[in-house]
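[Q] Does anyone have a clean structure-token version of this?
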Amino acid sequence: METTVTITGTGTPRPAPQRAGAGVLVRHAGQAMQFDTGRATVLRLAEAGVGCDEIDAVFVTHHHADHLVALPDLLITRWVMGAREPLPVVAPSGPLDRFGAYVLDLWADDIAVRSAHTGRPPAPEPAWTAFEAGGAPVLVWEGEDCRVTSIAVRHEPVRPAVAYRVDTSAGSVVISGDTRVCEEVERLASGVDVLVHEAVRVGGLSPGREYIAEYHADTVELGAMAERAGVARLILTHLEPAPADAVEAEAFGDDVRRGGFTGDVLVGADLLTVGLGVRAAAQSSVPSGGHGVDSNR
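[A] Here you go.
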């Protein structure tokens, strides 16, 4: 049973052409798990050939809007597509508890009129599962031949923020969410086949935006951490500043190499897809203008 990892969005809060909001899709044994739901997630899923009604669970890393804004879209779209069962949503307990309780409230009139017009039952609220995030991994979800664990990461002042690890018989993948380079992700990602990690080129930040480096991952430090953790393949996402062309994208990978990382490096583009444990060049389905840069040397 193959496990695949698809980057559904490599963007940040600032809009960038061809870069949807944060998100990662993991598929295994007929299951589809979506990690974060940034802007345009539903469209990227459609481009990847995955219907919203085919998503088995959503996992949220933290309560920043650029990781959440498409969750109502996903919930309503799956209902319009015919799903009637509540969608499992897993999230760390805290501000997200309130979000989960009210996520569809703004759309109550839309849902009501569609329901009355079509005769279908109202859209179900998500099956929200909250867990306490801490400094040690906790099991948060189990599926067929699949376990998802989570650990708190360092995105202060945003608390809580978490990373997730998916383990299957085909291999393992860690999704960092938003975080500084930290020992928590290093422990969670020890020996993984794929680490999907946010990345910031600190030297490329425009004046007045230096604060970004306070709670995001420096590319050079990330390369050193991934090497210590024994990561086989590193995929960079949530790219800041957003690269405008292939040369700027390649600079992210160059930074990681300067940090000492010797594994495979891919600078993420929306819809880039890899198989766990596959060391050949990643397969990529990139919208026109996107950049999926393989920075292996």
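[Q] Thanks! Anything notable?
[A] Residues 3-294 form a domain with the Metallo-beta-lactamase; Chain A fold (CATH 3.60.15.10).
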